[in-house]
Design brief:
Elements: H1 10-17, H2 23-35, H3 37-57, H4 65-87, H5 89-98, H6 102-136, H7 154-158, H8 170-179, E1 190-194, E2 209-213, H9 221-237, H10 242-251, H11 253-261, H12 285-300
Antiparallel strand pairs: 1-2
């Protein structure tokens, strides 16, 4: 069975026209063109196009105006393209590297590899340090929590006048958590703390509240409570200026602790926990009403319920008969 010869590709025909084929391949193409009218026509068209391009790019005798204009446009495009390559950083580096000796190129390669290795390791250390920062240092983000105070003097605070502690609104709490990207963190893992405590004039402002994690290592909320109580006492004793105390605890409370306790590590708990330092949050209306009602009943000291019912205000609030 006779095998049908494959037709030469356009690239093969162009190589044949430019006389860039080997003698064996050139003779094979010529034999095929003698027996294939379609390929012979293709080769003729390519040859005419090559001749036209040659007349445009290479001056051959007098040129007409259109040929000169076309040649000028081609030259301008070649210059522009060359300028683009010259401005390329990669092209410049390759050009300069090509002019260097092998030893110089090898040395530069070693330096670049070492620099890249150091950069990757430094980036990993930085990311790891940033991830550990909130836990190990227990400091708030300064741009989110710079601190906020009321216009009170040391005399006001020491005489018992301090910013009121109304329940923190849900909107304020949500804004603080969003700023620290802790909306999805369980409330049992942190406490919303004052940066500047109310005993030092701090207010329940978004700029003065931040979520302090319980797993913040040795520099935790309990240690900060000791600092707050010490500063309040020193201010009232006249040992420390109120403005200085506010600035120190707001800028870096850990440094302030080291400064006023004269230690590089937290000491044993100085004082027992104080429930007055806890922040109260706004409750849902129904729960708030029930709590208020129970509180009122407890202040009255007595209540009466229908005969036979359990005497538990928590279970029988709706059945209370006022005396």
């Amino acid at each position: 069975m006779r095998t049908v010869a494959a037709h030469p590709t356009r690239q093969t025909l162009l190589l044949a026209i430019d006389r860039e084929l080997s003698d064996r391949r050139r003779r094979a193409v010529e034999r095929h063109l003698q027996s294939c009218d379609a390929c012979r026509a293709r080769a003729a068209a390519l040859a005419n196009a090559a001749a036209d391009a040659s007349r445009v790019c290479v001056p051959q005798g007098p040129d007409d105006a259109s040929t000169r204009a076309l040649r000028a446009r081609l030259q301008q495009q070649m210059v522009e393209r060359g300028a683009e390559w010259d401005r390329s950083l990669l092209f410049t580096l390759q050009k300069r590297a090509g002019a260097m000796s092998f030893g110089a190129r090898a040395g530069i390669s070693i330096v670049l590899v070492a620099a890249l290795t150091w950069s990757v390791a430094h980036t990993r250390r930085s990311v790891s340090s940033e991830m550990r920062l909130p836990i190990e240092q227990s400091l708030p983000i300064a741009r989110l929590t710079p601190g906020a105070t009321a216009t009170l003097t040391a005399s006001d605070l020491c005489s018992g006048v301090r910013p009121l502690r109304p329940p923190v609104a849900r909107a304020i709490r949500q804004t603080v958590l969003q700023g620290y990207r802790m909306e999805e963190v369980a409330p049992s893992e942190y406490e919303l703390d004052y940066l500047i405590t109310p005993e030092l004039g701090g207010t329940a402002d978004v700029r003065n509240l931040w979520p302090e994690r319980y797993d913040a290592g040795v520099w935790n909320a309990h240690v900060k409570d000791d600092l707050e109580q010490l500063l309040a006492r020193l201010v009232c004793e006249g040992t420390v200026d109120l403005t200085t105390a506010q600035h120190d605890i707001a800028s870096n409370w850990i440094d302030a602790y080291k400064k006023y306790f004269d230690t590089d590590r937290p000491l044993a708990r100085q004082t027992a926990g104080n429930d007055d330092d806890e922040i109260e949050f706004e409750r849902p209306p129904s729960l708030q009403t029930a709590v208020t009602l129970v509180s009122f009943i407890q202040t009255r000291g007595s209540w009466s319920v229908p005969r036979g019912e359990a005497r538990s205000p928590a279970l029988n609030i709706g059945m209370i008969a006022w005396p």
